[in-house]
Design brief:
Strand content: 15-25%
Number of domains: 3
Shape: elongated
Largest sheet: 5 strands, mixed
Order of helices and strands: HHHEEHEHEEEEEEHEHEEH
CATH topology of the largest domain: D-Maltodextrin-Binding Protein, domain 2
Number of strands: 12
Number of helices: 8
Helix content: 25-40%
CATH architecture of the largest domain: 3-Layer(aba) Sandwich
Length: about 280
């Protein structure tokens, strides 16, 4: 027999109220219904949960364990219902590496001021959809186009490409670079979420590549001088690291910043987020 939520609620009510009579009042049912429900739970679990005397009711050792689990289960169910029915009191925005770069603090502050009833949470997930496909967020900031037709997308801005170098690299002395300056170097790339691609170079001038899977690893390798990185400008603002400098690559195409959401289940605040982010990128580009 399956354990039902009404049985768990009945058990918790008896323990919290202290008597079957008071539990029945709290649950809005008869005392006989409380007794039947508890008995069915004890049969389903195969253990005695309560000690009953003429004056008191107390949990058995097994009962104490079951009550503790029941409270957690009921709490999770309450959270599930709250999220499903009024979960739009929060907005979870995923990103893979660098959120919104220099626009991140302004977006957080303006959102809090203009949408005080919808808490904003930024979540870093290093996946192609920045956590959207995984269910970790309601909206995602991505910098690569998605072909998955389950998602809708809007370009909210453009970012320059920057070269990340060790501080003592000879190229770090320059104010800006060209792609040809990098063709003889080893480029550190993240193939899941990175925007550096060999298509930026002519076929006969592509740099060698090594692979990285995390921003901290990426920065550590670059600071060692073994590799260089090519990244959107937002990374330079989000991740300032001793030993690493960023220089603009003036002949590289800019990176389109996209906001992505589920086509069939958009968060009610999606359009507001698109409008605010587009304005931030437009006004401070």
């Amino acid at each position: 027999m399956d354990v039902e939520l009404r049985q768990l609620r009945c058990l918790v009510a008896i323990v919290e109220e202290g008597t079957f009579t008071d539990a029945a009042i709290a649950l809005g049912v008869s005392q006989a219904a409380v007794s039947r429900t508890l008995a069915s739970l004890e049969r389903a679990l195969g253990v005695r949960l309560l000690r009953r005397t003429s004056r008191s009711v107390s949990p058995t050792t097994s009962g104490l364990r079951v009550v503790a689990h029941a409270r957690r289960v009921l709490g999770e169910v309450d959270n599930l219902v709250r999220e499903a029915t009024s979960g739009h009191t929060s907005l979870r925005m995923g990103y893979a590496w660098s959120a919104l770069g220099r626009h991140t603090p302004a977006f957080q502050r303006r959102w809090a001021k203009s949408h005080p009833d919808t808490d904003l949470h930024l979540i870093r997930v290093n996946s192609a959809t920045a956590g959207l496909a995984e269910g970790s967020c309601d909206l995602a900031v991505v910098r690569n186009p998605l072909e998955d037709r389950r998602f809708d997308t809007a370009i909210i801005g453009l970012e320059r490409r920057m070269c990340a170098l060790s501080f003592d690299d000879p190229l770090a002395k320059r104010r800006s670079l060209r792609l040809t300056d990098l063709s003889e170097r080893t480029l550190l790339v993240d193939r899941r979420t990175g925007t550096a691609t060999s298509k930026l170079w002519p076929p006969d001038a592509c740099p060698a590549t090594e692979e990285s899977h995390d921003i901290d690893d990426w920065l550590n390798v670059i600071s060692s001088g073994r590799c260089i990185g090519l990244t959107p400008e937002s990374t330079a603002h989000q991740y300032r690291r001793p030993g690493v400098v960023y220089r603009p690559v003036r002949d590289a195409e800019p990176v389109a910043v996209r906001l992505v959401w589920w086509r069939d289940d958009p968060h009610p605040a999606t359009q507001s987020a698109v409008e605010l982010l587009t304005a931030l990128y437009r006004d401070r580009s």
